[in-house]
Design a protein that fits this description.
binds D-malate; 4-stranded parallel sheet; globular; alpha/beta; 11 helices; single chain; 245 residues; 6-stranded mixed sheet
Length: 245
């Protein structure tokens, strides 16, 4: 297995696809997706365009849908939810489909949607992601960070490093054996340095600071937890993800 990390959707090659592509938006879209499916949501359907989200979700039975919209870290008017994983309790999401659009995370998923296997991962479901990769053994894996409007983000890179680090450890592989590009080595180094204080790293991150300003400290704490959800959002049809487990 060769792992490649791309820090943003914009840096991700468009002329080829890997066997398995993973979108990561730790703060907070892919954490929220994992939380929705862990709480019994039927599926998550992602959109970059808000009008399209409204039009498609309109076709779905009202009692079985939730609309989540976020821009700039804030909930959009007219939507049921913003992008907080803490809002996704079983009482709210059980049996429902979440139609969601966020600033960066949904764009990352759209960028990789043509890959044969598409996953959504975060720190909360890192172990579930690694378990799947070790079972499936895809030849090439791309981990695509969502970043922030085209820029690098610490939280997505540290999560990509956490996945690669665990693959290395569990397969007793050398770094060289799994590394597809230089980003993998630097992401593993970042994770190795911060693995015992991921919340501390999020305080340094620009989007972490933004969320704290927006009263999202509890979200930051939730998103910084590793391996707490045995759930893996996997794409069933373009843009629609369900739990693999
Ligand atoms: C995004 O898609 O950029 C994020 O998930 C933003 C957020 O924290 O809601």
């Amino acid at each position: 297995m060769k792992i490649f990390i791309y820090h943003t959707p914009e840096l991700t090659p468009i002329e080829e696809t890997p066997e398995c592509a993973i979108a990561v938006d730790v703060l907070r879209a892919t954490t929220t997706m994992a939380a929705v499916l862990a709480a019994g949501g039927e599926a998550v359907q992602v959109f970059s365009d808000l009008d399209k989200l409204m039009a498609v979700s309109q076709q779905w039975p009202a009692e079985k849908r939730l609309r989540a919209g976020e821009r700039g870290g804030q909930k959009l008017a007219g939507f049921d939810l913003g992008n907080s994983p803490l809002d996704c309790t079983a009482e709210v999401v059980q049996g429902k489909r979440l139609f969601i659009s966020t600033t960066n995370g949904t764009r990352a998923l759209q960028r990789i949607e043509k890959s044969p296997i598409v996953l959504a991962s975060a720190l909360v479901n890192r172990a579930a992601t690694v378990k799947f990769l070790l079972q499936k053994q895809p030849e090439t894996v791309w981990i695509v960070g969502s970043g922030w409007e085209g820029s690098f983000s610490l939280e997505d890179t540290v999560c990509a490093g956490a996945i690669a680090h665990s693959i290395c450890q569990q397969t007793n592989s050398s770094l060289e054996a799994i590394t597809g590009n230089d980003e993998v080595t630097s992401a593993i180094a970042l994770y190795s340095q911060w693995q015992d204080d991921l919340l501390g790293l999020f305080y340094q991150a620009s989007h972490g600071k933004r969320l704290v300003r927006l009263d999202g400290l509890e979200d930051l704490k939730y998103c910084s937890q590793t391996d707490i959800l045995d759930v893996l959002p996997i794409q069933h049809e373009p843009g629609v993800l369900k739990n693999h487990y």
